[in-house]
Structure formats: C-alpha cells, structure tokens
C-alpha cells in the first residue's frame, strides 16, 4: 500500500510539473514569436443591441477583452464562462448563442495548447481522483494475513468511490480561494477600516473665537447664546471597507433650539392674570424649547466596481425628546459655567421612530492620473419610516470630489488632500422639501506604514424641516439660517 500511495503522489506531481514546464516553454515562445497580440472573435456593428461591442483575445496575456461602448473588461481565458454570463445582455440573443459555442471551443483549444495555472491544478486534481477511484481499500497480497483476514466473519470489503459532483465542487472552492484570493464574503476582501468623530455648530470654530467664548456671532451679538435652529451636532462612526462594498455603524445626536418668551402670571384673589412676556425666569435663565434627536444607524453598501455602481441599505433608529438626549446634555455642560443658561420648556412628548433607506448610486471618473483625480457621483434613495409621511422621503444627492495623491512611507500613493462639494435634496410624503449644500476639506497624515490620521473641516447650508421650525425667530431677525460649521478627525488603516 505504501508503494501504491507513493506512486500516486509521484504521478500527481509529475503530471502537474510536466504540464507546467511545457506551458512555460510555450509562453516563452509566444512572447518571442507572437504575431497575433490581439485578434477579434466577435464584432457586429450592424445590430443596434450589439453595436460597439467587441470581443478579442490576446495570446500573450491569455486574456479575453470585452469592449462595451468604449469601456474594456478583461478576463483570464479560464474564466470565459463568467465572462459570457456577465455580458449576456450586452449581445443580441441571435449572436449570443453562436458566440457562446465559439468561445467555448476557442477556450478548449487553448486549454490543450497553453493551459493556465488554474487548469493545471484542475487536471492534477482529476488525475488524483481518477487514481484514487481505482484503489480498492482492502488488504491484499502485500499483507501476509490477507487470507486469514478474509476468512474472519468481521472482515469488511470497503471500496473507495468518489462522488464526481462533490469532488468538482470542492476542487472549485479550493482553486478559487488559492488563485483568485477574493474570499468567500459577499463584499469581497477587507481592504480598510476607519474610526471618525465629527461635530457641527452654527458658529465658526464652534464659537471658540467669539466674544467670551459663548457662541456669539456677529449677526447675533447681544442675543444671549444665539442658539437658534440646528445649533449643535455630533457623530461617531466605525466603518469597514471591502473591495466590493462596505459596512458602517454610526451614532449621532443633533439639537435644535428655539427662543420662546413666557408670560408672567400674577394672582389677584382667585383670578390668575398674565402680564408681559419675559425672556428669562426668576433665576435669570432664558426660556427655550429644545429638541434633541439621538440616532443610531447601520449601513451596508454593495458595489460593482466594473460598472462604478453601488447599492445602499441603511437601517435607522431615532429618539426625539425635549428633556433628555446627548445634544441637550452637551449644550447644558457647555453653558454650565457661562453667563448664558437656559430653562428648557416641556413642549412635546418623547418619541421613537424606525426607518429603512434603500438606494442606488453611480460614480464617474472625470480625471485620473498618478498625482490627482477628479470624480463625481449621483445617488437616489427612498426612506420608509414608522413615523409616517413627515419622515418618509425621496432623496437625491450629488457630489464633486478632487483628490491629490502623495506617497506614504512605503512609496505607495495615498489621498493626501481631498476636497468635496455636495448638494442634496429631500422631498417628503407630506409635501415638505429640504435642501442642503456644502464643501468639506480633508487632510491625511501618514503615521504608520498603513495607518493615516486625518482632520476634516467644512461649512454647509442646511435648510431642513426642524431648522425651519426652530429658527423662526432667527429667520425674522436676519432673513436666513445660520451656516453649519463642521470639524472632525479620524484614523484610517488600509490593508
């Protein structure tokens, strides 16, 4: 048995390396004498569906090239089945049937003449399976006790038999993992991860440079804390990037404030009378209605790099409250030792809402070279919510992004500077319309071989339903909403 096992192992190795050597020799010969670098297999300019579709083959690279309306897709010859399946609808049905037969024959011929590494492995597996299928797993003449064992009542004659379909399936998985190295996860291989925190405020640099550090802007100077409309926001994010998509978890909070003077009440006898409206209570605190929206969302993006298209799904949970919440707590702590303090009025019930947003997007490369790139993207989504028509909307978003590339410590390119302009619109089922636009700039610093620390800043005009609701006093005073200023930082690791 040992001799037989050794024979099978040697046969497998000899078969693999013999083909590998002949294939290597063939490729060297082809590289030297190749006179057909590319030849066309399919081209039918007369058919409207197939117009602009060309399929060619290169003997040197052993690849098919599918050109569709000016864009080229390359496939190794041994992946011709995946190529045909992917471009099934790019060729008219009459041509496709004949093309499928032609490519199959073409691939079979070159499999014999010039097998790829994948095909060599497949053939080696087939030799192994054939040899093992002939082996009868029982004692034979090489075992002196064979006759005695066969006479034993407990003797069992076991014959090895392989399920061809199962072997083919297992071999395919092994080859796919060993050669393609794309992994078994639907989003591809993990390519990077990041952690980020962003803050927003309706004052430049979050009011750090304003009078007394109280958030007094020039247009709102002298009106206490100028906390009108969307006054504060914070968001933390952890994201994983894959070669074909990404996953992100975000926790965020945003606060909206509104100045609401209260009538002073006096009691004469049994009668209660309201006198003048006052901005402050007896302790000197300003009356304010404040809404804190605390949310958490989970996002999954599935991308199709060959087409620059992606699908997006977001699941979201939000809590709306006027007496608690992260944004309210942070505002209270900010003003704790300041001259401006607030008396938060109870003006609404605490509510929780759930929503799901699905959409599709496409990106376009406008300029791309070794030092910089310019791209744009368009995205459309639909949001469904348990909150009803006031939270169900259609959203359209577009952006224009410019990236400057620099070299890291290993001499590899990375996006050192990044500038983005974006515009977004929402149309709610209850006929409300939101719109926003802004710019942001990101600067990355290479701190480890694969790690990057970055800072981000931006400014935006955000006209949303809650800003309009809580900024009516500001709108009357200055005729517009305050700009939102963003400051943040994060860390990225690229594999």
Describe the structure.
This protein is α+β, with helices and mostly antiparallel strands and 495 residues long. The protein has 2 domains: 1-181, no CATH class; 190-494, Lipocalin, CATH 2.40.128. The protein is 25% helix and 43% strand. Strand 14 and strand 15 form a beta hairpin. The longest helix has 32 residues, at 2-33. The two termini are 47 Å apart. Residues 1-10, 19-35, 136-140, 155-161, 180-185 and 214-224 have low confidence and may be disordered.
CATH superfamily (homologous) name of the largest domain: Outer membrane protein
Determine the CATH topology of the largest domain.
Answer: Lipocalin
What kind of sheet is the major sheet?
12 strands, antiparallel, barrel
Helix content: 10-25%
Let me know the number of strands: 19
Which residues sit in consecutive blocks of at least 5 with pLDDT less than 50?
Answer: 1-10, 19-35, 136-140, 155-161, 180-185, 214-224
Q: What's the CATH class of the largest domain, please? A: Mainly Beta
Assigned CATH architecture of the largest domain: Beta Barrel
- The structural domain count equals 2
Strand content: 35-45%
By secondary-structure content and strand pairing, the structural class works out as alpha+beta
